[in-house]
Amino acid sequence: MRYLAIFIGICLVGFAPFLGQIDIDVLKIFDSSTTDYQIFWDIRVPRVLLAFFVGAVLSLGGLLFQTVFRNPMSTPFTLGVASGATLFTAIGIVLGFVSYIALFAFFGSLLTVAILFFITNNLKDIQTTTLLLIGIALSFFYSACLMVLFFISDLSQSYEIVRFTMGSLDTVGYFDPTLIAICTMVLVGVSLKYKHKIKLLQISFEFAQLKGCDVKKTNYTILFVVSIAVGVCVSITGPIGFIGLIVPHILKTIYKKSSEQLIVQISFYGGVFLVVCDMIARSVGTSSDIPIGVVTSFLGAPFFIYLIMRRAK
Length: 313
Hints:
Strand content: under 5%
Number of helices: 13
């Protein structure tokens, strides 16, 4: 059954580039002189790769955040990284630097991470709960600043800002997918390196300390790596919600294993899940693709309510 699921996932990813508003002639995708070749290799294949690796980062990031914060409702955006990226994207748009919004977004993410770790380094015995509250406070502050930018921006600028917040997997060429692929490999590598410590953290922080684990260093290392990887993703695609919430919980329910045993699986199926969401966004028959963040929110919001109700019971 496990191998069948992997096979189906690979088939879905392989089929995804052939799906779209423009029909592709399979016989022409190997002829570089045709439009089908350019659409397939320069637009659709990079888009599918981008979706797969972004989904992997967000899913694994959600798993790690839920472990560090010991909160099943945590997502990769919990510390305000996405809010920081959105705010600085809006700043870039209002200032007229539309061509450089990815750099503005990444700077916003990086600045948020820097603020968080600057505060934690200047406080004694800070807990992960305190870090979480600081992240939430930053998110509210960023939201207030964003409202000011909405107020002073014109109609076209407001549209660009809103469009960014909905998420997009539009890309041309392989630079963006390659960059996210590197982030994915680094995040997976760090997670596997800290696999034993993640297992200890799931039991309790006190138990991990008794076993010789430096809990503070481990938590901050994981949070830093996840935040940077998520910041790179958000700077390219915008915030895509609920991936980091849905996939880890579904796989934990199916596999019935602890988090450290599902690192690779969650990364893979998270990528497949976002590819499938993108297939839905591109095949609904509208004049343009539905923003990917809208699709994931449609799926994620009911699931989030289900998790809350289940937790309450």
